[in-house]
Amino acid sequence: MYDFANILFAGPCNRACPWCIGRLLPDRVNVSNLNEYPLRGLEGFVETVNRWRIPQVTLTGTVSDPQLYAHEARLLELLRERLHPCARLALHTNGVLALRRIDIFNRYDRACISFPSFNPATYARLTGSTHVPDLAAILRRATIPVKVSAVINEHNAGEVDEFVARCHEAGVRRLVFRTLYGDERRWSILPAYPVVKWFKGNAVLDYHGMEVTRWDFDRAECRSINLFADGTLGTSYLITRTPELRPAG
User: Fold this and answer.
1) What gap in Å lies between CA 176 and CA 151, rounded to an integer?
2) What is the pLDDT of residues 52-66, one digit of tens each?
3) Could you read off the pLDDT of 141-163 as tens digits, one per residue?
4) Cis status of the peptide bond prior to 18, with omega within 30 of 0
5) Among the CATH numbers 3.20.20.70, 3.40.50.2300, 3.40.50.720, 3.40.720.10, which is that of 4-245?
6) N or C terminus: fewer CB in 10 A for the chain?
């Protein structure tokens, strides 16, 4: 019924991505929950995950990063205790705090790092900061599988080949290029490499043993539930189309 479930965090962020999808959401769901425990709506969220036996719960954000959450370790302990035994916990982070919080980072079952460029100038255009996380160091210290997810647009499309090569050199095993929601442009990504499979409607390429996925949100065949910061439980993978956020009537 559902592929995964997300716990969404909102509040001040350590990056200022101009493409941040959370900015398209109503203000009421972006109220800060970075210091709240327990989270609003958590009981209903846990009950829904268990009822549908949803296989993965991801801590992510609308306008903030989940590793800024003050009670991250405590929440992980609660989820381990309360969720069905087959549930896996995942982290989707910008990686800024990964090394500083590596002990907590490694308590997840897997992680995904949103990382659009190794070039400080390009990274700044996409995130608002020239301070690029040390991806190679994070991978060296990680004891869990780590995927890299890169938003692609006009700022970094010309760096694709170099970026892929550096990710491979750093030890990345799974890399995803994400087309921004609503962006109908089609960027050239490794045209010389074959599609080896399809995942949820999106093509997966093989780059010397590293999986590279071309992810288009509009084509993705996914279903999820999402716990927003205000306690709303949404039922759309595309959070901007969440029916529970529409005005009554």
Assistant:
1) 8
2) 999 999 999 999 999
3) 999 999 999 999 999 999 999 99
4) no
5) 3.20.20.70
6) C
